[in-house]
Amino acid sequence: MQHAPLYWQFIKIKLKAMTDYRSSFLIITFSKTLMWAVEVYVLWILIDRFQSIAGWSSYEVMLLFGLNLASYSLAGFFFYHPFVYLPKRIQSGEFDEMLTKPMNPFLYLLSREFSTGYFSNMGVAAFVVVLAFVKLDIRPDALDLLFLALVLLGGAMIQAAAFVFAAVPAFWITQSGSLSRLLNDFKGFIRYPLSAYHGFVQVMFTLVFPFAFINFYPAQYFLRKDDFLMFHPALQYLTPLIGLALFALAYRFWKFGINHYRSTGS
After folding, report:
1. Per residue in 94-103, pLDDT tens?
2. Which residues cross the membrane (predicted)?
3. What pTM was estimated for this model as a whole?
4. What is the C-alpha radius of gyration for the chain, rounded to an integer number of angstroms?
5. Taking the domains of the chain in order of start, what are their residue ranges?
6. N or C, which end of the chain is more exposed by having fewer CB within 10 Å?
């Protein structure tokens, strides 16, 4: 925590740059908002055509989309640029320079590469979640809102852990971008209810790649559904714990990678 004030200073620099180049920021924000709006519309057309998917109505599936996008956006603010572009920094030798700083390289990387490009994503996600709540007549009380915040935080930690896990192999295999793309493809499965897939896929996204905890299981808390497949209903409450455990494991993997890192000599 001693580096928190310094971390905040880095973020303020990024935010100030955003206000200094306001026109560029607004154009990028508008284009990304439009892109996500089109994606939401295409998803809506697909769902509306079939009326429901594995017993989940259109707005219930939209809630899955909103929870996934919201947690992805939260993780993206801090983790997308640092870890998606880590292989390139290792190849160029830029990462070696970061190791010379008198600060934890993990925190330094996060603070230096904070991204302002996810406000549009977060806005679209918030709109979709609120719309789903209204259309499904979900009226959350204070406890529900607190749980929603914890779910988004836990989901963001799961998404962040995926960024870290995909990037760390770059310490040994400099061309590791395919791992990031593979995990991103895997996350595409959770756009739809897990119950729509074969049992093997359900187990994989619950126990091996626990992406179902980002949206499928916690959504059942708000929807009061009983669609837990072969698993216990308690899973709807576990997103914050799964996120914390997975992120801790990802950080240990990062430390292992750092301890066995050999410079590319660039």
Report:
1. 888 778 777 7
2. 21-47, 59-80, 116-134, 146-173, 194-214, 234-254
3. 0.87
4. 19
5. 4-259
6. N
